[in-house]
Amino acid sequence: MKLKRASRPPQSETIIALIDVVFFLLVFFMLIGRMDATAPFDVVPPQAQTGRDMPAGGITLAVSEEGDLALDGNGISAGALPAALTKELTKDPAFRLRINAHRDADLRHVLPLVTQAEALGILDVILVVTPERSLPSGSRP
């Protein structure tokens, strides 16, 4: 007796080509798509300005590399700062506060001072920076 083997269904197309297409599309959309979240409105960043003279008046708050504070040359604790700023604000409601931070000071020491000044009602806060030194033409730093 001769037995007949069951015929196999024809092999379907391999899906390797489909996987290649999917990866190609994935890479394509990753390259052309934006990965950051966009705001629902236009955001135009401010333009930095340096080289202008610092306005006169106001007081200077110095911040050391370690986060120590000095108000107009006199050391002050972070706890006593709000009272001192409020005192200055009552003398002149339009006074300006200049924050002069050491270049190696962490932002965690500087940014809360700006927030604190704003909460007290100080409207004019100036961050003191050193302008780039001008180099002769053709030379490199």
How would you describe this structure to a colleague?
The chain has 141 residues and is α/β, with parallel strands linked by helices. It has helices at residues 16-32, 81-91, 107-120; strands at 59-63, 69-71, 74-76, 96-101, 124-127. Strand 4 (96-101), helix 3 (107-120) and strand 5 (124-127) form a beta-alpha-beta unit. The longest helix has 17 residues, at 16-32. It starts with 15 loop residues before the first helix and ends in a 14-residue tail after the last strand. The mean pLDDT is 78.
CA distance, first residue to last residue = 95 Å
Radius of gyration over all CA atoms, rounded: 32 Å
- How would you describe the shape? rod-shaped
- Order of secondary-structure elements: HEEEHEHE
Total helical elements: 3
Unreliable stretches, pLDDT < 50, 5 or more residues? none
Would you tell me the overall average pLDDT? 78
> Structural class of the secondary structure composition?
alpha/beta
* Tally of DSSP β-strands: 5
What is the makeup of the main sheet?
Answer: 5 strands, mixed
Strand portion: 5-15%
Helical residue percent band = 25-40%
- State the strand order across the main sheet: 3-2-1-4-5
